[in-house]
Design a protein that fits this description.
The chain is an alpha+beta fold. The radius of gyration is 22 Å and the shape is globular. The chain starts with 15 loop residues before the first helix and ends with a strand.
């Protein structure tokens, strides 16, 4: 399959439904769109033009223009890697499609781009949402098969565990009976899925992971757009909450002293916070998966159980956190990018409270 696997010359896509229709027709005509990666992202860009500017500023070359669908390329080593990207005006969601290698080309190009721009983030999928997607698909397709899964339980996972609920555990499983095995692991060991490989006979086979990457193994690519719509709706409250936060300076008094104003966004816990969890939070947040550095003794609150300044090692962004009995307040420091906040919220769900919600 060529890296330019879509023929978009003389096309003009203005709506996502037109693009999905086009993909469906391609497959009906015999084109195999297998081993394609779909990567939905969330954007704070207000216009399509702003998004295009961010692509070119990073170094992407626009090869083809078909309305709101672009083919862009970037050099990676000795190769030129192509991405198709559709900018959805309804919700400012750029959707990337590529046959780039998931092992190095997607992290080195696409995820590096997302990290370096302050206006874009991948769509993290929390373990509870991953479980909901899996359960709903099983309800809709009784013959669904799970051939691979990766699952995890942290001490703060808010589902029951029949055996040793306080133990942190990770499980990787490959087998044709993955659906039944995951059900058993969820019941007996209280784990939640992070990666799933799913086969719906005579329809679709795909892989989905917690970073929001969907890989089409075979079958009808258009079926996954319902999942993408669901993910977009799920992150809407988080995006809106982040949008209400702010950081500014104002002059006060006759001598015009400068005063900093931090307007936080917040996360609400599903149950009262236990201070004994603080050492685990301090340790977990600096793991490679999250890549934050914690500076303690932030002065933002005297009423919290714990407060600190957090540095995003990937982007250099800073923000302050204040953990109190019912949740966390997150205070911007200068301009913090949406990718940092999305990753921090996913950290909270996976390591602090799996049932936490935007406050």
């Amino acid at each position: 399959m060529s890296v330019t696997f879509l023929n978009i010359r003389d096309k003009n896509f203005l709506d996502i439904s037109e693009f999905v229709e086009y993909l469906s027709k391609l497959q009906s005509d015999g084109t195999n769109l297998w081993n394609i990666q779909l990567v939905p992202t969330v954007s704070t860009h207000e216009t399509y033009g702003q998004f295009v500017d961010s692509l070119t500023n990073y170094g992407f070359k626009i090869e083809e223009d078909a309305g709101k669908l672009l083919r862009v390329s970037k050099v990676h080593g000795k190769d030129v890697v192509n991405f198709y990207v559709f900018f959805d005006d309804r919700n400012h969601i750029p959707l990337f499609l590529t046959d780039a290698k998931k092992s190095d080309e997607i992290p080195d190009i696409l995820f590096n781009y997302l990290r370096k721009t302050k206006d874009l983030s991948n769509l993290w999928i929390s373990p509870h949402i991953m479980k909901e997607i899996k359960d709903d698909l099983i309800t809709q397709h009784e013959d669904l098969i799970i051939t691979y899964f990766s699952a995890k339980r942290s001490p703060n996972t808010r589902i029951s565990s029949h055996y040793r609920p306080n133990i942190e555990r990770s499980i990787i499983y490959r087998g044709i009976d993955g659906k039944q095995t995951l059900d058993e692991m969820e019941f007996y060991y209280g784990v939640l899925p992070k990666i799933l490989e799913i086969r719906i006979p005579n329809e679709l086979s795909f892989r989905i992971d917690n970073k929001g990457i969907i890989t089409i193994k075979e079958g009808d690519i258009t079926c996954v757009f319902d999942i993408i719509e669901r993910l977009v709706e799920h992150i809407r409250p988080l995006k809106d909450a982040i949008g209400t936060s702010g950081y500014s300076h104002t002059k006060v008094g006759k001598k015009q002293f400068e005063r900093t104003i931090q307007t936080p966004w917040s996360v609400a816990f599903s149950s009262s916070f236990n201070e004994s969890a603080i050492p685990n939070i301090q340790q977990d947040i600096e793991q490679d998966e999250w890549d934050f550095t914690l500076l303690e003794h932030s002065e933002i609150s005297t009423e919290s159980h714990f407060s600190a300044r957090v540095i995003d090692n990937m982007s250099g962004s800073l923000f302050d956190i204040s953990i109190h009995g019912s949740g966390i307040r997150i205070y911007p420091v200068e301009r913090t990018d949406i990718s940092t906040y999305m990753r921090f919220f996913e950290f909270v769900l996976e390591s602090v409270d799996s049932m936490a919600v935007v406050g």
